[in-house]
């Protein structure tokens, strides 16, 4: 099923379809309107000095860009003012509550980095890198994890001959960041890069925090406790994220799901509601209704588009693009979309890498199995032509899939997309 909307034509424009990552344009719209371009996440370390050392309370607020380096910098500020001994540490992780993944998210995405949980304890993308290489035939493959103390994986991937039937690798997610890999890999396979999400946020964060204490030269021998709604001590130091507009640009260009879902939940928290997917969804619907959009039939489950229960029409997305053009506050988002053939998720999109579309399409893509979407603008001179193109239920036979994989032919939907967008280019007044 193909649905599209342009200034002078439409097809199945009101049909509800899976938006995938094009939903991020909705998240960006509401975030910028509600929070403002200069909004920053504040991560606070509050301190109560004592003869036994500092009593520390770390108030985590779900900053999706927060890193170990930022945490060390906070601890160093405290050390400079109050010394190197720590008596106790409490962590407030109450910012986001409820489920750490959205309703309708595909279960076997869990454990993969692009589906890392949006947590109050976000740090270093909640993600760990690794790679898999074949070993000798009949023996286990070689698995490398960048940090095995953060994630333990039992590798049971067997190396098989290059003539073996197709192999699969399956990841099983257990408790406390204990995973297992099963299946096989062919002996002639190249190194397979892997990126794993964490599943136990407190365990992961505790390890990061203990390492950061050591890097800052702070002495602490106790246990880290996690509590809800901790009142800050009178003394404090803060870390501020980059302004929201920069975070949204990263979210759009790189299609970063952690940023999208963290911002999504923050929308609810900033209205003094629970930081859950359900409450955030209500906020998004209310805000878009206030902007004149009708969401009575739409279904919004998250901010990233990972949930397969998200349903939005091409017409609704087109109205969002029109808002970006007409609302001075939202116009800044247009130039922060990926650029065809140049940046982010559109850099290598084969439908957009040649003239006249290269560098002239600014758009957000959306892709999951069976879904190929594109939402944005064609730029010609100083004019912008909004468009929405959504394809759901996409399926190739084995021969077509093999030809596309080997780059012998362009994916049929991308071919359609290229031709349709070139028609839009020609339709410019």
UniProtKB/TrEMBL annotation:
Q: Which InterPro entries match?
A: Beta-lactam/transpept-like, Peptidase_S13
* Class of this enzyme: hydrolase
Q: Which GO terms describe its molecular function?
A: serine-type D-Ala-D-Ala carboxypeptidase activity
Presence of the UniProt keyword GTP-binding in the record: no
Top-rank taxon: Bacteria
Q: Which UniProt keywords apply?
A: Carboxypeptidase, Hydrolase, Protease
Q: Which GO terms describe its biological process?
A: peptidoglycan metabolic process; proteolysis
Write down the Pfam families for this protein, in alphabetical order: Peptidase_S13
List the EC numbers from the record.
3.4.16.4
Return the similarity comment. Answer: Belongs to the peptidase S13 family.
Name of the protein in its database record: D-alanyl-D-alanine carboxypeptidase
Name its species. Answer: Agarivorans albus MKT 106
């Amino acid at each position: 099923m193909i649905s599209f909307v342009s200034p002078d034509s439409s097809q199945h424009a009101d049909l509800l379809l899976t938006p995938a990552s094009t939903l991020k344009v909705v998240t960006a719209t509401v975030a910028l309107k509600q929070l403002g371009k200069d909004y920053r996440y504040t991560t606070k370390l509050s301190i109560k000095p004592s003869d036994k050392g500092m009593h520390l309370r770390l108030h985590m607020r779900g900053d999706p860009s927060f890193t170990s380096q930022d945490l060390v910098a906070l601890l160093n500020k405290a050390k400079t003012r109050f010394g190197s001994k720590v008596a106790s540490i409490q962590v407030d992780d109450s910012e986001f509550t409820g489920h750490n993944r959205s309703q309708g998210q595909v279960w076997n995405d869990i454990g993969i980095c692009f589906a890392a949980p949006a947590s109050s304890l976000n740090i270093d993308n909640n993600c760990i890198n690794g790679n898999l290489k074949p070993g000798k035939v009949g023996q286990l493959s070689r698995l490398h994890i960048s940090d095995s103390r953060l994630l333990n994986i039992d590798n049971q991937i067997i190396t098989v001959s290059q003539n073996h039937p197709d192999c699969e690798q399956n990841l099983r997610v257990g408790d406390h960041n204990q995973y297992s890999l099963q299946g096989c890999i062919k002996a002639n396979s190249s190194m397979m890069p892997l990126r794993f999400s964490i599943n136990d946020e407190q365990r992961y964060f505790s390890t990061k925090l203990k390492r950061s204490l050591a890097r800052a030269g702070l002495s602490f021998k106790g246990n880290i406790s996690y509590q809800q709604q901790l009142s800050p001590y009178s003394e404090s130091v803060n870390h501020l994220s980059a302004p929201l507009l920069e975070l949204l640009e990263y979210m759009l260009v790189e299609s970063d799901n952690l940023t999208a879902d963290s911002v999504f939940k923050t929308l609810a928290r900033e209205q003094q509601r629970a930081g859950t997917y359900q409450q955030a969804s209500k906020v998004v619907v209310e805000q878009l209704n206030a902007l004149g959009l009708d969401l009575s039939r739409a279904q919004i489950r998250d901010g990233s588009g990972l949930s397969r229960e998200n349903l939005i029409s091409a017409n609704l997305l087109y109205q969002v693009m029109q808002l970006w053009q007409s609302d001075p506050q939202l116009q800044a988002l247009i130039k922060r979309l990926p650029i065809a053939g140049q940046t982010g998720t559109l850099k290598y999109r084969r439908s957009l890498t040649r003239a006249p579309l290269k560098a002239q399409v600014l758009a957000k893509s959306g892709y999951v199995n069976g879904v190929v979407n594109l939402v944005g603008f064609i730029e010609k001179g100083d004019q912008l032509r909004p468009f929405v193109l959504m394809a759901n239920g996409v399926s190739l036979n084995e021969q077509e899939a093999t030809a596309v994989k080997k780059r012998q032919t362009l994916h049929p939907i991308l071919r359609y997309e290229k031709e349709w967008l070139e028609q839009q280019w020609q339709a410019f007044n």
